[in-house]
Amino acid sequence: MKVLGIESSCDETGVAIIDEKGKLLAERLYSQIELHAQYGGVVPELASRDHIRKITPLIKETLKAADLTLNQLDAIAYTAGPGLVGALFVGASVGQSMAWSLGIPSIPVHHMEAHLLVPFIDQASGLQFPFLCLLVSGGHTMLVQANGLGDHQVLGQSRDDAVGEAFDKVAKQLGLGYPGGPAIEKLAKQSISKRDDFPRPMIDHPSLDFSFSGLKTHTLLEYKKAKQLSEEKADIAHAFQQAVTDTLYAKCQQAIEQTGLDTLVVAGGVSANRGLREKFNQLDDVNVIFPSMKFCTDNGVMIAYTGLQYALAEKFVGTNEIKVYPRWSLQQ
Ligand code: KG4
Ligand code: ZN
Hints:
Blueprint: E1 2-7, E2 12-19, E3 24-31, H1 33-37, H2 44-65, E4 75-81, H3 85-102, E5 106-110, H4 111-117, E6 131-136, E7 141-148, E8 151-157, H5 163-173, H6 180-189, H7 213-228, H8 233-259, E9 263-267, H9 274-280, E10 287-289, H10 300-312
Parallel strand pairs: 1-4, 4-5, 6-9, 9-10
Antiparallel strand pairs: 1-2, 2-3, 6-7, 7-8
Helix pairs in contact: 2-3, 4-10, 5-6, 5-7, 6-8, 7-8, 8-9
The structure holds 5'-O-[(R)-(carboxyoxy)(hydroxy)phosphoryl]adenosine (KG4) and zinc ion.
5'-O-[(R)-(carboxyoxy)(hydroxy)phosphoryl]adenosine binds next to helix 5 and helix 6.
C-alpha cells in the first residue's frame, strides 16, 4: 500500500509518500516563512495562493523521488482541519480530486492527531497507546489522553493564546523575526544573567488548562522597563521561555498524577525548543518521547502516516465531498 499525504493547513506545503509498513518513500516540504516574514505573521490569502503555486510541482517531485507513478498510489490523505480555511481548501481540493480521478480512497486527516501520532514513525521509541500528549503548536495548546486511533480525550487546553502564538507575538514585540519560537530560543541562549522571574500562569489552578496571554503582556511590560534601563533583550527572552517551559512542565506533572499514565509525548512546533526538551527530560519515572526535530513542525509525513493508520484500520468514511473543518475538535 502506498499512501500520499498532503499538508496545507497553514504556511507549509508538505507532501509525502509512505508504504504499508510506515516506511517513508519520499517527502517534499516547502515553507512560506520568507513570504510571511515581511508581514510579521501568516497572511492567510497569501498562504492560499502560495499553496496553489507549489502543491502540484511538489506532488510531482515526491512521486519522482519515490520512483512511483500516480497509478501506483492506493490512497490520498490530506489535512482537512483545523487550520486556515483557504489554505486547507487547496490541499483538500487537490487531494479529493486526485483520489476521485484515480478511483482510490481519500482520507481527511485531523492536523493535531497527525502531530500526536508522528512519533510512532520512529519504531525504536516503543510508543504504545494509551499515553499522555502535550500538543504545543502555533494554533493549539492541549493536554490529551491518547487512547487509540481517533480516540483522544482533551484533558486541558489554552483559554487564550496557544504557546506557539505567544512565542510569535512576544518575538514580534521584541523586534525579532517570524516565526518567533526559533528566534526567542536563539536569543534566550545568549542571556548571561539567565533571568528567571516571570510568573507561571495557572500552575496552582486545579484544572489542566493554560493561559499565556497575561504572560505575553507581562513580557512586553518588562521589555519596556528593561529598554529604559538598557538591560539585555536576551534576558527577557530567557525569562519568557523559562516561564513557558516551567508552566507546561508543571501542568504535565499534574496530568501524570491525575491519569497515572507513565508515557508522555510532547509534539507540535514548540516541541522543537531545546530548552523545553531539556526540562522535560528531567521528568522522573516517565518515558518522555519527542518526535525527531524535522517532524515537530508541519510536514506531509505526519499526514501520510496518519492516513495510513486509518487506511489499515479501515476506519475512515469515504466521501467525494470537498469539505474542510477550520475549527475541528480533536474529540470529534
Ligand atoms: O506545529 P506548527 O509547525 O504549526 C501549527 O500547527 O501551528 O507550529 C508552529 C509554531 C510557531 O508558533 C513557531 O513559533 C513554533 O511552533 N516553534 C517554536 C520553535 N520552532 C517552532 N517555538 C519555540 N521554540 C522553537 N524552537
Ligand atoms: Zn501543526
